[in-house]
């Protein structure tokens, strides 16, 4: 069984949730231990008592195209608590991406209220909207959206670059994120040198490298075969297990089954919203041994045990030369 960190246990892991030092200094969203304190240890990280990550009320989005009005979202209410893993389903054109774009602060609603992690963002525009987006949200798209001819590790560094993180720290954090998705040994590969599933895992690493409060994925497995789908879902599920809030749009019931709740949309409205027992494979075996090991460990190794975590700026670490990354 994968070791789980228990409440109160210090995080010695150089992982995404650790390293408060770097992130706090740099103004990046910090370690969420404080947020998670007081939650159960049973794996149910949902915490209805705290500020919800997402709270939308009366959300409406209409488009006027060529004199025709399309009501893509109609009076949507949705609350997602911190630590939930929610799947959004619905037929094509039902408004899923429109909702996701608003939740991700890529678009603003025609009417309604959106409070993101305690901040009212429905009316934000321009730079203020971008700031909230960069600090609070990680995106994963169906088409990966990696920068071509650019290494995996540099792709993952991008959000940190925008946040003004110094080069060496940026590289270290990006390598940790790649280790977490099982791609330490692909850090120097460009997107065309990676499989679809690997590209999407790089995209997931990029989405979470700056510790966003919310991970949004719009059909993240839509372009993947079943094996890569499993790889990506496993990473998303692990991120959720660590306490992140994850919202995934999907057309596939198997994918939605990994979540703890499914919201179904139809004609711009939420028509069903039900909690479920997640259906995940009993054994979480790495399906790609060539790239899955070493995976990031959630706890530090015991005394005398070799440390399989990603090397930190060790001589010969992929991509770190004397001059550092670009
Ligand atoms: N920018 C836009 N301008 C005009 N109409 C739009 C725009 N974006 C979305 N729509 C319309 O809003 C409705 C909802 O679209 P949306 O992309 O949210 O659907 P979806 O549920 O994501 O569908 P799919 O499963 O095919 O991705 C559709 O009728 C679409 O044509
Ligand atoms: Mg869509």
Automatic annotation (TrEMBL):
Domain ABC transporter span(s) in chain numbering: 54-292
Keyword Nucleotide-binding: yes
Gene3D superfamilies (UniProt xref): P-loop containing nucleotide triphosphate hydrolases (3.40.50.300)
ATP-binding listed as a keyword: yes
Residues that span the membrane, as ranges: none
Biased composition (Basic and acidic residues): 19-35
PROSITE patterns, per the entry: ABC_TRANSPORTER_1, ABC_TRANSPORTER_2
Region described as Disordered: spans on this chain: 1-51, 276-326
Biased composition (Low complexity): 289-303
Keywords, sorted A to Z: ATP-binding, Nucleotide-binding, Transport
Domain of life: Bacteria
Entry coiled-coil feature ranges: none
GO MF entries: ATP binding
Protein name (record): ABC transporter ATP-binding protein
Organism of derivation: Aquipuribacter hungaricus
Organism classification: Bacteria, Bacillati, Actinomycetota, Actinomycetes, Micrococcales
